[in-house]
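SEQUENCE-TO-STRUCTURE ENTRY
===========================
What this section holds: a protein sequence and its matching fold, both as plain text.
Question of interest: how does this chain fold, as expressed in backbone structure tokens?
***
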Amino acid sequence: MKILISAYASEPGCGSEYGVGWMVPTKMARKYPEHDIYVLTRSRCKEKIESALKDIGLKNLHFLFYDIPRYLFYKNEMKSNWGEQLNYLWWQLLVKKYVKKINNTYHFDVFHHLTFNQYRTPSPGFFLNISFVMGPIGGAELINDVFLQDLEQHTLKKENIRKSGKDLRVFGWWAKRKKNKKVILCSSKENLTRLEPYKGNAEMRMMPAIAFDPIDFDGIGKGREDGTKDDVFHMIYAGKAFDWKGLHIFLKAAALAYADDEKYKITLVGIRFEEEQKRVNGWISELKLKNHVELVPFIQRSDLLKMLSLCDLSVYPAFRDSGSMSVLEASALGCPSICFNAGGQDAFPDDTLVKIEIGETYDETLQMFSNRLRWAFDNREELKRIGEFSRSWVTENLTWEKKVDDYIEIYKELIG
């Protein structure tokens, strides 16, 4: 087979979406040398990619680069979520012509839109006459009304659009452009349920968007060395401070749970922008947590993994998600994670995570969060057992090797 993978985000050695765009094609090319794998991405990481390709020496793996015109490119995209979204939208719209051109040269059997993946945005695969796989896609999950008081106005507007279902019709419009065979992969049950009525002739399946490579975790042991043990309960939050990520309610729950205890520490990793830092520092001061919270704006992924391997609890309090790499990486290290029992984490069995049920009101949910944090503090041996079970489960079910096996089977089904 000749397989074209669209990976807008692709970078060697990275996590999150950029890691997905690198790991899937490289794992696939290595395990299936009989297939030719072509990856379409931007030249943003071209030097890193070409250097890494020389090192791995896979003759059946090829990268193709396409960039939007400079006059359309939003230069400060990494400092603006809207800038990044705008560049992505332009890229998807304009790359279609280039894909048709290279398809005339290479005659691909399958086109797989891998990263980024949202149901609202276009993909060249919707306009081609070759078999098409999209996903796993996310974004259709809804935020429970209980959390609305923590959302900013622009998020509330987006959430109201989601709830109305009008943006689902955009996906339906894309899905019906061509009669080519299509498989749309959804990252969570909620995505699948909400998108299925708009699928056109596509087949819909559920598949977690996340996976990991056990090699990345070699030599990173779980648990502190005997000489560094202490009684401090260490929690890590890794991510941005977007309102829907739930950082504010976590800090409130921690202040409530540990009001009478000094032996805890919270490390917040990845809050880079000055405006976000000011907002978070304001919450910390208001909740009297200054002696317990440390902000680390940026850290190398390898160092973050080491930190996770040593901490007691990874905190991921997002109100909705399509599947968290943060939760997966913590689990792969045997570090237990706490999260809401909301969309995006249903790929994980209940006994692999410390899940917080959502109550009838915000205050009730805050109290439930606080109770679970206190339980984790008081039951560290049980917490370790959860971490070890989660490590065992993700190692069996969520590796890149298993994922590329699944993708290859889907490709074969499509081309018959």
Observations:
- The longest strand covers residues 131-137.
- The chain has a mean pLDDT of 92.
- DSSP finds 13 helices and 13 strands in the chain.
